[in-house]
Amino acid sequence: MSDRHFAFWPKGQSHSMSVPETSVFHNAEVSAARHPDKSYLIFYDTPVSFAEFHDEAERVAGWLQREGGVKKGDRVLLFMQNSPQYVIGYYGILRADAVVVPVNPMNLTLELRHYVKDSGATVAIVAQELFAQMKPLLAEGLKHIVVAAYSDYLRQPTDLEVPEVIAAPRQAVGDAGATQWNDVLALNLRPGPHTAGPDDLCVMPYTSGTTGQPKGCMHTHRTVMHTLVAGEYWFSMKPDTVRLAVLPYFHVTGMQGSMSGPLFTGATVVLLPRWDREVAAQLIQRYRVGALTAIPTMVVDFLANPKLAEYDLSSIQRMSGGGAAMPEAVAQKLLDMGITYVEGYGLSETIAPTHINPPERAKKQCLGIPIYGVDSRVVDDDFRELPPGEAGEIVTCGPQVFLGYWNDPQATEAAFVKIDGKCFFRTGDIAQVDEDGYFFMVDRLKRMINAAGYKVWPAEVETLLYQHPAIQEACVIGAKDPRRGETVKAIVVLKESQRGKVSEEDILDWAHASMAAYKAPRIVEFVDALPKSATGKIMWRALQEQEQAT
Fold first, then answer.
1. Are 503 and 464 in contact (CB under 8 A)?
2. Which of 6, 25, 266, 459 is most buried (CB neighbours < 10 A)?
3. Residue range 400-423, pLDDT digits in tens
4. Looking at the 3D structure of the chain, how many domains does it have?
């Protein structure tokens, strides 16, 4: 790391950081011992104490080992929205010495099939409303599904508006292989000794990138501990700073910054399963929320609330985020309210941040500076470091970088490069560094569409589209969208026999029924042929440039 980064280092923070050499689950044991009766989670006014959370995570672990047949290193799918069961399930999997595979709750059966097959998981913990999507896979590798009803943790009266899916009463599941969450807890089974250590696998979030199918990012307890501790230290977070969790826990930013980080510190987390600007404002006022992490689209919506001035938001000390640059006018509006929006940068492969802006010297629309122990550089095509102001690919080396892609040594090898004897991860993002050592995004080397903060990988969507019987060829690109920033557009060549019989609307309907809503194309355009290179490859970049020009 260059000395210039330290010139703007957070006040009072050392340049290095000692990370506990324990499993991530050990944080649950420590906080339960320190703050047994304090609320760790608050879910629509229902509190779950640190001791209660720890006890229930142990019961889930006991069931996984003794009834689910889960052994050390086995992968277990976690498929639900932010909820007490998500957090308890996550830590129950870790207590069982197993590996969490977090899955976006918007995924459908066609997509889930890949996660089950690729990870080799035989057990999944699933929300009640998502059970129908996972159920068919009981015949295709899964042996057990634990089904959870969010409403089991609505134990106190509330005047907050609770979404219908959260309030839905528990429904009986009579399917072989399916077990109710409350039945798992009622058995009160206890796990064997906790043997997972810092270098055992901990969590495996999936990412797509330039290839068609999502790839599992192998993270150990050591890599995960680094960013969850780093975020707490960087912002000098205290046990009494209440957090509002609005980002999804299946994504590494929400997982680390709004779930595991506060658990390490012993802080209370107010859970919101899905974004609701009105309820968010109510919760900030009611629980004197001091910190939250939110993507720019959430902040824009939050500030657009005509009733916002009616709420006392003075407790907010920190608002941070990433995924897309915060618009200048929105950042200024927050500043006018006394709130500095601190942007950061990270990837699934780095289990959240490698860069964060210093809170006292944050720059707008900026990725920040490399955090503790991270060596990040902007390099040219020959991997030579570029001077300030010149654009190149970000490569990064640090304690939080993943081990590689699960069962994909070829992709793993392509993802890393040796520079000065050190192993750097190639992010695929194009940036430049200013004279102060701050990183600024310029472009993406990888194909990626940023739709309202969700990363959409065109190659993955194309792979799914090719399963439609009428599609001969497809190319997916980003199209400008006034609300989402970018949206997904599919340029499609129909099979000769299907032309005139299948409409663009038919393809849109099929896509929405077959893949997660955020990645399903919103626009379909039929063409007679796609442009090809001399080697026969579809020239997606030419189509993307043509779209941008129009």
1. no
2. 25
3. 999 999 999 999 999 999 999 999
4. 3
Domain that residue 534 falls in: 449-549
Full-model pTM: 0.88
- Which residue pairs, CB below 8 angstroms and at least 24 apart, start in 71-74? 71/97, 71/98, 72/97, 72/98, 72/195, 72/196, 72/200, 73/97, 73/98, 73/99, 73/200, 73/201, 74/98, 74/99, 74/120, 74/121, 74/122, 74/123
Specify the pairing of strand 46-49 against strand 39-43: antiparallel
pLDDT for position 536: 62
Which H/E stretch holds residue 283?
helix 277-287
Q: What percent of the chain has pLDDT over 70?
A: 97
- Mark whether 253 and 401 lie in a shared domain: no
Q: For 461-486, what is each residue's pLDDT tens digit?
A: 888 898 899 998 899 999 998 888 88
* 270 vs 23: CA distance, rounded Å: 25
**Domain harbouring 427, CATH code:** 2.30.38.10
Specify the 3-state DSSP secondary structure of 118. Answer: helix
Q: Are residue 395 and residue 469 in the same domain, yes or no?
A: no
* Alpha-carbon gap, residue 436 to 529, rounded angstroms: 49
Contact assessment for residue 343 and residue 367, using Cβ atoms and an 8 Å cutoff: yes
Residue 405, C-beta contacts closer than 8 angstroms, at least 6 positions apart: 215, 216, 217, 218, 411, 412, 415
For the segment 78-95, the average pLDDT, to the nearest whole number, is 98
Name residue 395's beta-bridge partners: 377, 426
Q: What is the pLDDT of residues 123-169, one digit of tens each?
A: 999 999 999 999 999 989 999 999 999 999 999 999 999 999 999 99
Distances (CA, A) of 342 to 53, 69, 189, 253: 31, 44, 44, 14
Question: Any idea what the Cα angle at residue 7 is, between residues 243 and 2, rounded to 5°?
Answer: 105
- Tell me which residue of 370, 359, 437, 426 sits closest to 399, measured CA to CA: 370
